[in-house]
Every structure is written in structure tokens, then in C-alpha cells.
Amino acid sequence: QVQLQQWGAGLLKPSETLSLTCAVNGWSFTNYYVSWIRQSPGQGLEWIAEINDSGSASYNPSLKGRVTMSVDTSRNQFSLNLTSVTVADTAVYYCARSIWGRHPPYFYYYMDVWGKGTAVTVSS
Amino acid sequence: SSELTQDPAVSVALGQTVRITCQGDSLRTYYASWFQQKPGQAPILVFYGKNNRPSGIPDRFSGSSSGNTASLTIAGAQAEDEADYYCNSRDSSDNRGVFGTGTKVTVL
């Protein structure tokens, strides 16, 4: 079964580092990307970052260099680190499988498999 | 601009048709994808690309695109379609994903 299993610390203090891991189950992430998305309480979805199996990553500029993603191909796992967290980083964090390509004259981009989400609270 | 704008809320009578729109410059280059999210659950992909529905998504969900606007139509809305809906695209200028502001659909 195609799945993403995610985990990480759910309670952090301001200035600490958020670390989450997403494991691929039932599929090979060759030719796919894995993205991280978050949703603050009562708010919409925010794209955070993505990475492919080669380690090529893109990040949301709004996170101002605090975010990094890494990939461990031997374990089929992706990780997200967000440094210097504040209460504004309190959210449910999701990982998702991303697919993008070209269908002339347009491109397509979508996320078809999602993890269940990890609730992260930042509080002093 | 990389923003995707959606109407905050729409309502539809049971069995009627509702269209949700998403506007943004990135939609001139990328097809939108659409997600349904119910309270406390992860989003679910309901439509993507030019004309694609994931397995298990009812055919009452359809999508279209024109210029900078993408639309998701629910034909014959059911009570279980009541949810938040988000569009998604990609900003090619800074190579990142972007989500719409979300539309809350209420089925009356």
C-alpha cells in the first residue's frame, strides 16, 4: 500500500529546532518529490519545502533560511528541520508525495499521497 | 505574484452544482490541482492536471482552466462533499509550490 508515515517531536520551546521525518512505504521515490506542508490552527495550507531522491531541494522563501530538507535513500526517509521556532510555527505538518511534469502547453503539479500529519506546538 | 485567490465560502443545495474558482498568475503556466479537507483530516487530492481524477474520487468532481483561473465543479453535491477545498499550483519564478486561500463549501 502506498503510504507516507511521519513522526517527530510534538512540543517545542521557542528557539528550538523542529525535526520531522517522513518514511516512504510501498513505493520507490525515484522520479518523485516529497514535500512538506503545514497548516496553522484555523488557517490554510502553506507549502514549506520539497526534495527529490537526488537531494535537490526547494524552499519557501518566507521561512528565511530556517528550513532544510534531507533525504536518506538507504532508509527511504525524508527529514525536515526548521530552526529557531516561534509560536508562529505551531501547526500540523504534513509530508506528501509530489509529482510534476509537462503536458504541453502547460505543466502539471500535484500531491497525491499524504501523511496523516504531525501536530507541533511551540510554547514556552 | 505567486498568490492563488479563492472565495472564502460558498454554499450549495443538496444535489445542485457548485463551482469553486482559483485565480493566480501561475495558472497561466500550471494546471491547478484540487484538494478536499475535512476537519481533523489530511487533505485529499480530488482533481489534477488537464482532466484527471484519482482513483476513488466520484465523477461528480471535475476541473477546468482558462487563462489565470482554474475551477473545480461539484455536480450534484452530496452531504459528504461539505469540506474545505484548496487549489494548488507552482510558482515557476521561485520554484515553489503554492496553495490557494481555501474555500469552505457548505451543503444545505
Overview of the molecule:
The complex is a heterodimer of chains A (124) and B (108). Chain A is built from no helices and eleven strands. Chain A has strands at residues 3-8, 11-12, 18-25, 33-39, 45-52, 57-59, 67-72, 77-82, 91-103, 106-114, 118-122. In chain A, the strands form two sheets. In chain A, strands 2, 4, 5, 6, 9, 10 and 11 form a seven-stranded mixed sheet that branches. In chain A, a hairpin with a 2-residue loop joins strand 9 (91-103) and strand 10. Chain A starts with a strand and ends with a strand. The model of chain A has no long low-confidence stretch (mean pLDDT 94). In chain B, strand 8 and strand 9 form a beta hairpin. Chain A binds chain B through residues 35, 37, 44-47, 50, 58-61, 94, 98, 100, 103, 106-112, 114-117, and chain B through 29-31, 33, 35, 37, 42-45, 48-50, 54, 65, 86, 88-90, 92, 94-102.
